[in-house]
Design a protein that fits this description.
The protein has four helices and no strands. It is mainly alpha-helical. It has helices spanning 2-5, 13-23, 31-37, 40-50. The protein is elongated, with a radius of gyration of 25 Å.
Length: 75
């Protein structure tokens, strides 16, 4: 792939993934979204690390109510 380097095309695994997508019959319009979906988790973690925050989803517990503790000897 050295001849392509002079044109600014630096070959990495993503260069070849386009060929694989094509052979799998995936439409060309979906190449970039497929590329991005695999990297979104890494981008999110990187952004959280750079901003010194950890984003966690807000949830409400819907399970059974807490039970009182009984010592093992009383069980």
């Amino acid at each position: 792939m050295a001849p392509y380097a002079r044109h600014g095309v630096n070959v990495n695994v993503d260069f070849y993934s386009g060929v694989v997508y094509h052979l799998l019959g995936i439409k060309r319009d979906l190449f970039v979204p497929i590329f991005a979906v695999g990297r979104v988790p890494g981008w999110v973690v990187q952004e959280q690390t750079e901003n010194n925050i950890l984003i966690r989803p807000l949830t409400l517990y819907c399970g059974p109510q807490p039970r009182s503790y009984r010592p093992i000897s009383a069980r």
